[in-house]
Amino acid sequence: MKRIFALLILSTVFCSACTSTKWVRTSVAKEYDFTVALEQLTEKGAIVPQTHEQPQGIDPAELKKVLGDLIYTEKAGLMSKSKLSSVFQQTEIDRLTPVLAATLAKAEAGQRLRFISFNQGQSVIFSESQKTEGVVFVDPAGQLNIAFNYVNAKRLPNETSAIYSNYSEIDPLKITTSDTPLSAPAPYAELHQFETGEPAPMWVVADLGKLKESISTGTVPVVKAKEEIPPAAAPKTETVVTPVEITAPASASDDMLKTDIKNKLKYLKELLDEGLISAKDYEAKKKELLDKID
Fold it and tell me: From CA 159, how far away is CA 117, in angstroms rounded?
């Protein structure tokens, strides 16, 4: 009996040690579509010092540009391929920017910002409730850091409002793999590099000096495509080539449309059979798709 009691004490001590380090948060804003909090790391009740360059006054226009330039690789869906998409919708940027800028201006060196933002994404047929979570802070080099736990992830059924959504306990600065990695940083930003030399998939660092220059010169970030090597220049001749316009048969386009509608109808029927949509929704969407066929 004594032995069992001793094991229970050791187990309790071990579990306490496991949970002795945690992030303590102070709510800044709780709205229907987003929440923002200040958080600081504590260990056994004591604050763990951080070296953030805060408080930091950042022009909301600059912060808005950073949020608007963030791109990620969207995970492929049931009937779609992976593609590059914006991390934030414009409505998210407009409501998040003033709160994040004001909070950075009052944050202490040991704190960072944690946020959750809700939006309605567009799936194959219906809109989809999504959420994005991450942290924001300014490092000792004066660079703006934004690291994400997840980007446009599907919301849980009980997450009807950001107010009822819980912050993740995972530190986004330690995420090394992701199925929705950030991509194509703007000219003033780059992905953070871990000590191993590997890029952090969910952590972007923006140089505030280059950001100001980018705004003043009107530089527009471009998603880089794979460079193609131009063919060797052909010798000039006086031959005149008559352009020939090639058009695809109209029937080919019609067949592609019909095939696409057929696939969507099958998917719609699967949703009905699984009880994910009502018969009324099924009939309404079915009619909408069939009306596209002449």
Answer: 12
Confidence check: pLDDT of 220 > 90: no
Helix 90-104 to helix 60-69 angle (10° resolution) is 130
- Cβ proximity of 50 and 40 under 8 Å: yes
Q: How far apart are the first and last CA of the chain?
A: 81
| pTM tops 0.85 | no
Tell me what the mean pLDDT of segment 63-75 comes to.
94
Residue type present at position 210:
K
Give the integer Cα–Cα distance in Å for 137 and 56. Answer: 9
Taking the C-alpha atoms of residue 56 and residue 16, their distance in angstroms, rounded to an integer, is 35
Q: How many helices (H) and strands (E) does the chain have?
A: 6, 11
C-alpha of 98 from chain center: 19
Decide if pLDDT at 16 tops 60: no
CA dihedral 10, 15, 18, 20 (to 10 degrees): -100
pLDDT at 122 over 90: no
Q: Are strands 189-193 and 127-138 parallel, antiparallel or unpaired?
A: unpaired
Cβ(155)–Cβ(170) under 8 Å? no
